[in-house]
Amino acid sequence: MFVNFRRIRKCQCVQLMTTCLVLSVMMVCWEQLDNSVVSHVKSYSYRYLVNRFTYINKSLTIPREQARSFSNFRYLLDHPKKCVGKDVLLLLFVKTSPENIERRNAIRSTWGNETYIQNALGVTVKVVFALGAPQTRKGEPSWSKRSGIGFQEQLIHEDSRHGDLVQQDFLDSFHNLTLKLIMQFHWMHNRCAHARFLMTADDDIFVHMPNLVNYLQEMSSRGVTDFWIGRVHRGAPPIRSKDSKYFVSFEMYQWLSYPDYTAGAGYVVSSDVADKIYQATLTLNASLYIDDVFMGICANAVGVSPQEHVYFSGEGKAPYHLCIYDQMMTSHGHVEDIYDLWKAATHPQVKQTTSGLIGRLYCTAVKMSLLCKPYYFNTYPCKAAFV
Ligand SMILES: *[C@@H]1O[C@H](CO)[C@@H](O)[C@H](O)[C@H]1NC(C)=O
Ligand SMILES: *[C@@H]1O[C@H](CO)[C@@H](O)[C@H](O)[C@H]1NC(C)=O
Ligand SMILES: *[C@@H]1O[C@H](CO)[C@@H](O)[C@H](O)[C@H]1NC(C)=O
Ligand SMILES: *[C@@H]1O[C@H](CO)[C@@H](O)[C@H](O)[C@H]1NC(C)=O
Question: Does an H or E element contain 371, and which?
Fold first, then answer.
């Protein structure tokens, strides 16, 4: 009896300890889940209740002389004549860093090849790389040490071959991305104001240039204004966790959610919007270093809101398939595969396979199977299968 009792107690003890362990693990996880769910629910409802954000504009407006400190950096590399005398459909800025020369070369010989675009598509697109100053000493990569010339000299050399680098004298770093954004809008205002559209893109995205050009030509012939298109983030909350790359302090941004904005990986604005954004940068405090969010704040200040295009991908990578190539605009996260993807996506076979009634039916079925998954899968949304 006594022995039995002790056994039971031992068993219960183990049971109790296991229960405690499971509960505490659950609580730790729940807290994380809860934090992000609650903050998204809060910010999302906040966005729909408040919706206007006019006070953001008011509280971030600073005197022009002070706002100038975010834009009056000296140009280290510049091409004032780039757009002169040309009917430019699209000015396309690729945000890049000094060390990413391979990515720039890949873009130059695939989707960003201006000669190809001019010859094959019959329009003028200017592809320009936006960058800041390289870190001296510490961040120098091995190749520049090996060859014995400095980083900036390498860039000057690269620019003399291709003539497509635009660089200002601020340190090229993640926390200076907003300065890079401002540089792009100021450069367009001063050097290429007559371009009909402005696009800004990461250097690891793939742009389906023929599809994009077709689309923009159609928009241009309709004379669109107030046009801002990409993957839209609505009611996104500022991230308050200090460990995150996207951490934003209350001093920097005190509200529960950001105004709507498009993912920085790639978006397009019409020239009237570009001009309004330029005007906004002359009076806003640009210390918020998340560049796409800052773009949202500028747009909000001038009364422009973004529109969703299902084939702009944001963070996601498109599935490899002819039926996707037929409609894709941008896809994120391509470096090594960019040459193959460019070849495959622009191959005449794409149009052959996807045209006609049979082709369209086939592609709808394929796209449904690729995009409409029951679990979360970061690429184009399910509704893209039906457009
Ligand atoms: C760009 O395209 C043209 C014409 O299609 C081609 O001759 C040229 O080699 C390409 N440039 C690069 C850098 O691949
Ligand atoms: C941004 O650039 C400025 C000017 O070069 C520099 O002083 C500053 O340290 C940079 N900020 C960051 C966070 O890299
Ligand atoms: C801009 O905002 C930052 C906080 O994010 C603040 O420290 C700074 O003083 C502001 N600049 C001006 C000129 O008000
Ligand atoms: C934002 O502020 C500026 C200057 O204070 C003002 O001219 C503009 O109308 C404001 N924008 C909105 C949408 O309220």
Answer: helix 356-371
DSSP secondary-structure letter at 247? B
What is the pTM for the complete model shown?
0.87
Q: Which two tokens stand for residue 350?
A: 């794409």
11-48: pLDDT as tens digits: 566 676 666 666 565 555 555 555 667 777 777 777 76
Q: Are strands 232-233 and 330-332 parallel, antiparallel or unpaired?
A: unpaired
Residue 45 CA: distances (Å) to CA of 42, 294, 376: 5, 21, 22
358 CB less than 6 Å from ligand 2? no
* Pairwise CA distance, residues 275 & 209, whole Å: 24
305-334 pLDDT tens trace: 999 999 999 888 999 999 999 999 999 999
Q: Is the CB of 50 under 6 A from ligand 3?
A: no
Short-list 329, 284, 106, 252, CA closest to 185: 284
Name the closest-CA residue to atom 14, ligand 4: 54
- Which residue do the tokens 């809008």 mark? 185
Written as six digits, the tokens of 134 are 């390289």
Go through the domains of the chain in sequence order and give each one's CATH number: 66-308 (3.90.550.10), 322-386 (no CATH)
Ligand 3 centroid distance, CA of 206 (Å): 36
Alpha carbons 272 and 261: distance in angstroms, whole number: 17
Residue-wise DSSP of 136-157: PGGG--HHHHHHT--HHHHHHH
